[in-house]
Write a structure and sequence with these properties.
Blueprint (H helix, E strand, L loop, with lengths): L2 H10 L19 E5 L2 E11 L10 H18 L6 E8 L4 H18 L2 E9 L3 E9 L15 E5 L4 H9 L8 H11 L8 H7 E6 L4 H12 L2 E5 L7 H7 L3 H7 L6 E5 L1 H13 L4 E8 L4 E4 L21
Parallel strand pairs: 3-4, 8-11
Antiparallel strand pairs: 1-2, 2-5, 3-5, 6-9, 6-10, 7-9, 8-10
Helix pairs in contact: 2-3, 4-5, 5-8
C-alpha cells in the first residue's frame, strides 16, 4: 500500500471504525483479525486490475495465480494459515478458453496452499479479480507495529526481480531469453513464502509483505512502530538473473521496485540465528539488511557508508488526486 493510498484510508475510512472486542486488529495492517468463538482468524483481501497489476496480454493462468498469491503473502506476513477463499471476478466478456486457463492457475495454487474456494461473485465490466482469504493465526498476530530499536531487519528471497520482469513484459515483444524468462516468471507468478508464516509467529516482532517496494513498505512498518531504520544497500539480496540483466540498476530495483511479495520482518537480535536456521530448513533464504533505530528517519547507506536518495514505491494515486 503506497503512502497516498494509506492517506486516503486514514482520511475517509479509519475514523469510522470503532474498536471492538471481536476485532483485535483492524484497518492499517496487512489484514484484519476477527475473533470467532475462541479462535482468532486473519482476514485479508486484495484486488488486481488489468493494465494496473498485470498486462492485458498476461496469460489467464498467471492472472489466477497472481490473484491468490498476493493475498497469501499478506497472510504470511500476519503469521496466519490461509484456509478459505472468496472470489470476485469482473469480466468484460465470457472467454471460455481464458476462463479455463484462469481457473487452472487459481485453483492449482489453492490446492498447493491448502485453500478451499468457498464462494464469491461474478459480474460484467473491466477485467478485475478480488480475492478474500480467511484462516487461523499460528499464534499472536504479527503486526506492523511491534518493531523496537535494536531489532534486525530480515528479508526473504531476492529483491528487484519482479520489477525487472514487469519492464520485460512491457518491452518490445521480442522473445525472452533464459534470464529474461526467469525474471518475467517472478513478476507473473509470485511465490508466497507460506512455510515462513509459523516461523514469523514464533520469532518476529513485526512484519510486512513487499508489494510496493522495500522503501515504501518499510516506511509503513516504521510509521506503525514509531521507529526509524538504517538499511545497507550492499546487503540487499539480488538474484543472479537480476545482476545479469540489470546490474547497474539493481540497487534502485531492489530498493524501490514492487511486486516481489517477499516478507520483511523485524526480529530481536537474539532470535535472528534461530529464525534464519529454521527458514533455511524450509528452503527460504533470509538476509539481514539493516537495523531498527530510535529516530523516525529511514536511511539507506551505499557501499561507502554514504546516504543515498530514496525513491518511493508504486502508488495507485498521484499526489494531485483527490
Amino acid at each position: 500500500m503506497s503512502q497516498r493510498e494509506f492517506d486516503l484510508i486514514q482520511r475517509y475510512f479509519r475514523q469510522a471504525v470503532s474498536p471492538a472486542a471481536d476485532l483485535p486488529v483492524g484497518i492499517g495492517d496487512d489484514g484484519a483479525v476477527v475473533l470467532a468463538g475462541n479462535t482468532n482468524l486473519a482476514w485479508v483481501m486484495d484486488t488486481i486490475n488489468e493494465d494496473v497489476h498485470f498486462p492485458h496480454d498476461a496469460p489467464g493462468a498467471a492472472v489466477g495465480h497472481r490473484a491468490l498469491a498476493v493475498n497469501l503473502s499478506d497472510m504470511v506476513a500476519m503469521g496466519a494459515q490461509p484456509r478459505w477463499m472468496l472470489l470476485s471476478l469482473c469480466l468484460p466478456e465470457v472467454d471460455e478458453a481464458w476462463l479455463a486457463d484462469f481457473s487452472d492457475g487459481l485453483l492449482s495454487l489453492a490446492r498447493d496452499s491448502g485453500v478451499t474456494l468457498a464462494g464469491g461473485d461474478t459480474t460484467r465490466g473491466p477485467l478485475s479479480v478480488a480475492v478474500t482469504l480467511l484462516g487461523p493465526l499460528h499464534g499472536q498476530a504479527v503486526q506492523r507495529s511491534g518493531a523496537r530499536p535494536g531489532d534486525r531487519l530480515l528479508v526473504s528471497g531476492t529483491l528487484g526481480d519482479a520489477r525487472a520482469g514487469l519492464d520485460i513484459a512491457l518491452g518490445d515483444g521480442h522473445a525472452a531469453d533464459a534470464v529474461e524468462s526467469e525474471l518475467l516468471k517472478r513478476y507473473l507468478y509470485p511465490q508466497a513464502r507460506l512455510a515462513l508464516s509459523p516461523l514469523l509467529a514464533r520469532h518476529a516482532r513485526a512484519a510486512i509483505d513487499l508489494s510496493d517496494g522495500l522503501v515504501g513498505d518499510l516506511t509503513h512498518l516504521l510509521s506503525a512502530s514509531g521507529v526509524g531504520a538504517t538499511i545497507h544497500s550492499q546487503r540487499l539480496p539480488r538474484s543472479r538473473a537480476l545482476m545479469a540483466h540489470a546490474e547497474e540498476e539493481s540497487d534502485a530495483l531492489a530498493l524501490s521496485g514492487g511486486d516481489d511479495y517477499e516478507i520483511l520482518c523485524a526480529v530481536a537480535p537474539e532470535a535472528v540465528e534461530t529464525l534464519v536456521r529454521e527458514a533455511a530448513a524450509e528452503g527460504i533464504m533470509l538476509s539481514d539488511i539493516g537495523e531498527i533505530t530510535q529516530g523516525p528517519e529511514l536511511t539507506v547507506l551505499d557501499r561507502d557508508g554514504q546516504p543515498v536518495p530514496l525513491e518511493a514505491g508504486f502508488s495507485h494515486f498521484g499526489d494531485d488526486d483527490a
